[in-house]
Write a structure and sequence with these properties.
Layout: H1 4-9, H2 16-66, H3 76-80, H4 97-100, E1 103-104, E2 107-119, E3 122-134, E4 145-146
Antiparallel strand pairs: 1-2, 2-3, 3-4
Length: about 150
């Protein structure tokens, strides 16, 4: 029969040093993983920005087809618009409502440099430029885009 002193010596478990070593290893692994996570996040945001630029361009083409008298839209709000009621040139409902607010996945989108031309007695936009700029450079993205 073992005495209490012998039982305490033979206890199974981790010592304080063993726990500190394991915690140190976990801390080192986390330190190595965080920069990779940030890099993947930036790459994902940049890929999303390119896809959003393509979506804006497709919405402009559809807008031009639906409202030829207006030409292209000069605002993201006009491409999106409220989801209630019938579509109009001021709220065409051809762009995702989230994207029509101008920000998505760490990027700010804007339609600029609109070219206006008077055809007959009606003003219409015949050209536009779409830009995508990271909200925080080197954090949400490294690259800006223009179409």
């Amino acid at each position: 029969m073992k005495t209490l002193k012998q039982q305490l010596r033979n206890e199974d478990g981790f010592t304080l040093i063993e726990l500190l070593i394991v915690m140190s290893i976990i801390l080192i692994l986390v330190t190595l993983a965080i920069p990779q996570y940030n890099k993947v996040k930036k790459t994902t945001n940049q890929t999303s920005a390119i896809a959003s630029m393509k979506a804006i361009h497709a919405a402009e083409i559809q807008f031009n087809g639906d409202y030829p008298q207006a030409g292209y839209s000069c605002t993201l709000a006009a491409l999106g618009g409220a989801a209630t009621g019938a579509p109009t040139p001021q709220a065409a409902q051809v762009l995702d409502p989230g994207l029509s607010l101008g920000t998505k996945a760490g990027y700010v989108f804007n339609i600029t440099n609109c070219t206006k031309q008077t055809v007959g007695s009606t003003d219409m936009y015949t050209g536009y430029q779409v830009t995508a700029v990271p909200i925080t450079v080197n954090k949400t993205g490294d690259l800006g885009y223009c179409m």
